[in-house]
Amino acid sequence: MPPESPPPAPQPERPGRILARLARQIELAAATVDISLAQYRLLILLSEGKEAASALADKLAVSRPSVTGVVDGLVGRGLVERDHDVDDRRRVGHALTAEGRRVLAVADAEVERRLEEIVSHRPDGAAAAFAGLVPWQEALDAHRAARRAERARQAEDARAARRAETATRVAAAAQPPTTPRAAPRPETAPRAQPANRAAAAAPPQAAPPTAPQAETAPRAQPAATPPTTPPTR
User: Fold this and answer.
1) Are the C-beta atoms of residues 30 and 36 closer than 8 Å to each other?
2) Class of the 15-122 domain?
3) Residue 98's pLDDT band (boundaries 50, 70, 90)?
4) Is the model more confident about 179 or about 204?
5) Environment class of 210 (CB within 10 Å of its CB; exposed 0-12, middle 13-18, buried 19+)
6) pTM for this one?
């Protein structure tokens, strides 16, 4: 007969509450090296590589001003350093310093020590309790990979939309502008135009005098006067 499979492990009724209690224990362990739980999480994120403030805020699920306050405390202690992007001075990256990596290693050791102390009260020791974290680690890694792939797809879609918009503007600018034709005017009788502007501007000339009309009846001539005879002496 095949060996009987072990009975399924009991499922906790409120796993979120258990994780919240564990988070409190991690917070207490991190406090031994004078860092908060948020700072511990941020150091863990930066141990994987340089990040911008916006990416840190997204991964920590906090606002941009909140993550700035967390970073400011770590920068002041020399655990994190800021550097400006060579191509874009407005983009600021964050990276761990050598001191930051040392403090993170000390914090990791304190967290593990505290968790081992807690699970030591189990009859089967710490191995079974820590083994139960492996499926969660696999699930968290898969979830993070899926989120990164989705963000990459959204970023590529946004770039493609910007390229299409730019191509549309370039094509529209390359076409010659079209001028609408004016509607034809109705034909009207042409106005009499002066021969030239000088003629139009010259004052009107007086009409030439008319020739006298020929007389119809001859005028009466005066009677001839007889010559006068000198008197005889």
Assistant:
1) yes
2) mainly alpha
3) very high
4) 179
5) exposed
6) 0.61
